Structures are given as C-alpha cells and as structure tokens.
Amino acid sequence: MGYDTAFDRAIAASPVHGAPGQYAVTFDADWNAPAGPNGGYLAAMVLHAMQLALDEPGRAPRSLTLHFMRPPQPGEGTIAVATERAGRTMTTLSGRVEQGGKTMVLALAAFGPARPSVADFAAEPPDAPAPDTLEPLPKLDIMPPIAHRFEMRPLPGPMPFTGGDEARVGGWMRLPEPRGVDAALLAIATDAWIPAVFARITEPSAAPTIELTIHFRHVPPPGDDSLLLTQFVTHTSSEGFFEEDGWVWAPDGTLLAQSRQLALLVPLS
User: Fold this and answer.
1) Is residue 119 part of a domain?
2) What is the reported pTM?
C-alpha cells in the first residue's frame, strides 16, 4: 500500500534512466537534525530505495546497518543499490548514498520472509499511560526541524538537559497526517526521538549518528494510524561517544523494531 504524506514525499526515490540500481533522491531540510539530515530519515530513504530495487514484497527487511560518513546538504543526491547475494530465502543488499561525487552513507541490509519459530518472546513495553492523557512535547524554535515533524507525548521521566539520574527517554509518537506503519516509518522512528543522553546532561549538544543498526521484528498490516510507543536508553557515554538502544512497539504491545546506534556528543558552542 502506498502513502502520500510529507514523509513519503521526503523519502521518495526515482529510478535513474539507463543506470540500473541507481535512484535519484532529494534531501529535505525539513527532516534535519542540528548537524544535518536526521540519521533515521536517511535510513528510511535508503530502505525505501532498497525495497524498490528488490521488488519482492515477500522478503521483508530484517536488518539494516548504516555508517554515516558525512552529512548530505539539502538538495539532490543519488542512492546506488547493489545485490550482494540473493539466496533461496535471504537477500543481502548494499546501498551507497552519494552527493557531489562523494559517498555520504554506506548501508547493508538483509531481507527475508518470516520463518517458523522455535521460541516466541519479546521485550515488554514500558507501563505507558494512554497517549491522550499525556501532554505533547512543545514545539520550540530552538528545536531542530526533525522534532517538528512528529507529534510526541513523552512518558514521565527526566526532561532534556535537566541533569537526570538516568539516560532514558521515550513515549508515544505519530506523524501528523493519517498514515499506517511500515518499515520506512519504523526506520525513522528509531532515531527521531530526542537522544536519551540528553536527559543526563545540562547543556544543549548535538548528537550526530556514526552508525545505526535497526532490526525489524514485525511490520503490521497496512493501516491509517502511525501511533508508536518508543523507549531509548544510554548506558555509556565516554571519550565523546555514546551508545543508544531503542525499542519501538505497536499500541497493542507488539515489538516492531529494535535499534542500536553509536553517536557523537558534540557541544553546540
């Protein structure tokens, strides 16, 4: 099922005539973080191009890893997708985001169908109040553009830059336009929330992603509501780098995606 929302237009990819596996894209500054395009936004764009290249709906994305080398500038670029291996049940694709003759992002993804499961269990969601009982995160001018692209309702806990005793954030989030949940939306959801480490520090900082890995655990059937429950936790920040683990659940508690990233913690001044 295709959608026509601001998000879908921002991750659109068009095949380049005469260049198999090449897709033309436009980097939209409305989805920027302080240091350039949000990592989850780029992940969604690369994943979309890979799905177009694969063209096998029966092989769902299972893992996507991206290394961010430099931030693309707003405007045109390309994504080159290559099939590294197409096996009986799994396909591995690589993706290279390029702009101005330079590589911006390198990606590797695995696609495959669901399999019979020997064991079924998953991380439980946090005890979350209903979204309409929580206040939405205010949209402040000092926030980067990506923070204005979602309605976010944080769970009780430390607010950013308040020097809290743990680096744990998350809550309910959805796009402002009617749209169902798919793999591209899950990809951006793993990196659109305010970084967990911000709850531990007291001064605004930038947190550009170095590497992001997303595991897609379940993509729900097409629908018209993008409501998701998220939680992000950081255990270690040292030598200017921090890690962040993330989980994304459906409203019924089904685990949809997990993520881990390594990012820089950079003073803004």
Assistant:
1) no
2) 0.96
